[in-house]
Give the backbone structure.
Amino acid sequence: MLGTSGTLLESLERRSRTSRIGSGRITLAIGILILGTMIVASLAAPLITSAKPDAIDPLHPLLHPLSPGHLLGTDSFGRDILSRILYGGRIDLLIGFGATSVTAVIGTAIGLASGYFGGWVDSIIMRIVDLFFAFPFFVLVIAIVAMLGPSIFNMFVAIWLTSWISYARITRGHTLVAKRQEYTLAARALGYKNRRVMLRHILPNVVSYVIIFAMVDAVGNIVLGSSLGFLGLGAQPPSPEWGVMISDGQNYLLTAWWLSTFPGIAIILVGVGFSLIGDGLADILRPGD
Amino acid sequence: MTDSAAPAVLEVEDLRTYIATDAGVVRAVDGVSFTVGEREILGLVGESGCGKSVTCRTIAGLMPSPPARSTGSVRLAGYGERNLLDLSTSELQRLRGEHLSMVFQDPMSALNPVMRVGAQIEEAVAAHEKLSGRARRTRAIELMERVGIPVPERRMRDYPHQFSGGMRQRVLIAMAIAGRPKLLLADEPTTALDVLIQDQILSLLLELQRDFGMSMILVSHDLGVIGEMCDRVAVMYAGEIVELSDTATLLGGPRHPYTISLLRSLPDVTSQSRYLRSIGGAPPALVDLPGGCRFAPRCPLALDRCREWDTELLEAGAGGHTARCWRHEETRREDAWPEPSYESA
Amino acid sequence: MTGRFGFLGRRVLQLIPVVVGITILVFFLLHLVPGDPARQILGQHYTPKAAAEIHHKLGLDQPLWTQYRIFMDRLVHGELGDSVYYNQSAGSLIAERLPATLLLIAYAGVLAALVSIPMGIIAALRRGGIFDQATRIGTLITFAMPPFWFGIILILFFALKLQLFPVSGYGHGFSDHLWHLFLPALTIALAFSTILTRTLRASMLSTMRMDFVDTARIKGISRTTVLMRHVVRNAIVSIVVVFGINLAFLVGSTVIVESVFSIPGLGQLLVAAVESRDYPVVQGTTLVLAFFVVLVNLLTDVVHAALDPRVSYE
């Protein structure tokens, strides 16, 4: 009797040990490692390579990767690709963090207020949210950039204007749930001020959803930022922004594949880093979902 | 109706089903043995989470593996000497519907929401018989009539959400009896229903069981339902059977302290009000089971040795009455029970 | 049956404020232009006379409310204003470019479904297996992959190196179109199938845990029947919903992919109009693409209602 239950236990315990929270921690660690490496490498670019990202060398254009002094080769102007990718990372990572953090804060505040106070404020905000959701987001961003004029700052403005919507919708939904929970009702019954109830009692229950979505959103924003750079509507040449670099390389596809390939891989690495952090956090913060 | 009187349709021996979860290995069913005789209704009773449903699902081969794994043996008369736990998928498919079937607790979630009710019944009809579309339809209508669904020709075309809870449960029963199974597993078939509807469904099940000569396992947490329906009862606690007997004996002369407490928690047993009305505490987590008797932490009669060693099911009376308790002979003496204490909740 | 018509009617009514909102939003786009749009358009050729002409053409010399009324009045008559750059109305420019974009979107949608439906199903069935892990890593990478970059890589391999497909363009005649649009459609489909595969996998897993699947299994029908008729049939409903939600994303990707592959569609028109500061064309294209999304969303709602009988009774 003991024998059968013993082996049954043993065979299952191994499976049990690799729990969701445990695998979430591993996912998170890998994500932080990838993203952290990219951030540190961009910030410490001058320490890693002595080549300047915009130093033109007419004598050494289109050098192959692994050429002496140019690990990832050079572009048509003889500029070092590695150096451009490292310095360009500062721009793309800034897009990822700058665009995402601002919209996350604004959107969460709007969604919190909308869900908490309800009434006509909520109706109006939700109508606006519905409207923006009907729009092809990328088209709207392009249209706004078109009107403001192509530049990296205007690209930020366009993203700020449009992508708070998702955060507002997520926050509002979870605020409505949290509002009906007993701890919130108790806090309100005790006569706490609205601001205190919102910040102390509702926000902590909502914030994990916001953070997890922000990681996904950051990937989207980096892809969006590089897309606009590629189209000539975001960062402008000779900026080493990764989208701009891919666009530069497009004319040399057959002769110099590395011009477009490496910046693309850089975008993917950063995106995968953010995604893994998001997945890991989701497993850790919301294991029940 | 004791073991020796009727030939067994189902024999379950030392059945264990363990489930791997994030919190650890849950020992949902832990060494359960019982038999179900021909035309017999066996009740499985206990608090939620005691392993009654998992027992049924394991017998039907419905436990997902992984994360669940089972050992022991489950044998069904008319299905050779095969252990049902060892059957392949295609063998299970032949077994189901024809030899055994099951009715689930929540009739709303147990019906496919995007499929017409008629089609769902026809599917059960056609599972083991090659029939023309017309014959299938006729059989489905007959079945719907048999379980008391009015205007079946019209209702066939409706979707589950257009049915009431009671009618949905009748649909589920119609599908379960479509292949005339020898054994019907009814997993809390009335728990999700209104009290008035509950009685109708129970009488329907009883009627079908008699007419078809089926054996049945009825899972319930409601001793009242068990008393009305069952020939024999197995009381489950923390994955184990703690008492097994014919219904009259069990309700009239229970021996295990858990069964006694359960009976006393029934609202209509008012004569013995000097005892605790509810059982204090909660069942142990099946991940981290206490050593010794699993009921000991909640048992008013527990001695030191109860906490150290567990026992097997011990002979407690005539006709196969067994109880898993060292002190089963003392439990009926009033003075063995301590004075009631006034616990909150 | 009346329930379903009622549902459709309600959905159409709900669209009215969204459609009006879209027109207001697109109308105000022009007023985002810092300073004087005429100065932006004319650049070095700026003269007060030319500026006045442009003001008149764009209606900027009218009060705001009148401008919107004129805008709406034109819109109802199918006029989207005149292109500043081309000697053509924005409407006719858009009409010329629309078919290529529609074909590309449909093509990409079909390819995405062909890729993600089997992948999502297999990944869910063999949960935790090699295929599931590979799918997870694959979707992780494709999610972070900029579509324009993937398009370029496809051009590099399949058009330049292997010379299986054309590098760019749209071709002539339907089958030629399909040939030309294969790589662009694949580019978009890959990005889109990330979302579809993940959703279908999750939806399959949650459906497999439903009681009705056990009911189906206990009937004694074959595993394949349980899977197709009960699990997949229910899980596919979520795919339709997700398709609707992410349609805007699909349309957005076409804009950039058209630019990569030089396809004469709305996306390319939009980007070109942005570069030449052709404001009426930007407005018109944005409007048409937004209306398209609204319309297809309505369509997915109808399909959703057809697939899930509970919807019409909510």
Observations:
- The two ends of chain B are 39 Å apart (CA to CA).
- The first strand of chain B starts at residue 8 and ends at 21.
- Residues 240-339 of chain B form one domain.
